[in-house]
From TrEMBL:
Family named by the database record: Belongs to the skp family.
Pfam families: OmpH
Gene3D superfamilies associated with the record: Skp domain (3.30.910.20)
Gene name, Swiss-Prot/TrEMBL: skp
Organism: Serpentinimonas raichei
Keyword line: Signal
InterPro entries named in the record: Chaperone_Skp, Skp_dom_sf
GO cellular component: cytosol
Cleaved signal peptide residues: 1-24
UniProt lineage: Bacteria, Pseudomonadati, Pseudomonadota, Betaproteobacteria, Burkholderiales
Protein name (database record): Outer membrane protein
MF-aspect GO terms: unfolded protein binding
Length: 174
């Protein structure tokens, strides 16, 4: 019985050593890459084009909302100055007008922000999809086993963000 236990122990130990050696040999061939998505969304031509497109699309509405905010501030300041000289009826009427103007401003500002965020997300999603295609192309061409997009720390030799940005900038927009 002791010899069988000893044999089982030696066999298990040998199998464990072989598995460890095989894993070490495989780990040396394991190629990892890292992509900084924030940099891709900040520095790539596609992301900058999307930002420009959004600015052009929403600049008129932004000016309108800003003008309404300025109008509200001006009306509020005028009311503060003139309130002591106004009759009770005039003061009440002006206060109602200011409340209505404030509601309109808040409603328009909120609608503007919601529309802008929705469109920004749509545009960024398109850029991310294109970037992911470029990442897959790089991974296949350079035989990466794993490419990650978020990490606490990554050694700079694994960072392929510049390659992704270059590939994204050279890839035609779809």
């Amino acid at each position: 019985m002791k010899s069988f236990t000893r044999y089982l122990f030696r066999t298990t130990l040998a199998a464990l050593l072989l598995a460890t050696a095989a894993f070490a040999a495989t780990a040396q061939d394991f190629k990892i890459g890292f992509v900084n998505t924030d940099r891709v969304l900040r520095e790539s031509a596609a992301a900058q084009a999307a930002q420009t497109k959004l600015q052009q699309e929403f600049s008129r509405r932004e000016r309108e909302v800003d003008a309404l905010g300025t109008q509200l501030r001006t009306a509020s300041e005028a009311f503060q100055r003139e309130a002591p000289t106004l009759s009770e009826a005039q003061r009440s009427t002006r206060q109602r007008q200011m409340v209505e103007l404030e509601r309109d401003f808040q409603r328009r500002r909120q609608a503007f922000q919601e529309d802008l965020n929705l469109r920004r997300n749509e545009e960024l999603q398109q850029v991310i999809e294109r970037a992911n295609r470029v990442i897959r192309q790089i991974a296949e061409a350079e035989r990466f086993d794993l490419i990650i997009q978020e990490a606490v720390y990554i050694h700079p030799r694994h960072d392929i963000t510049d390659k992704v940005i270059a590939g994204l900038n050279s890839a035609p927009a779809r």
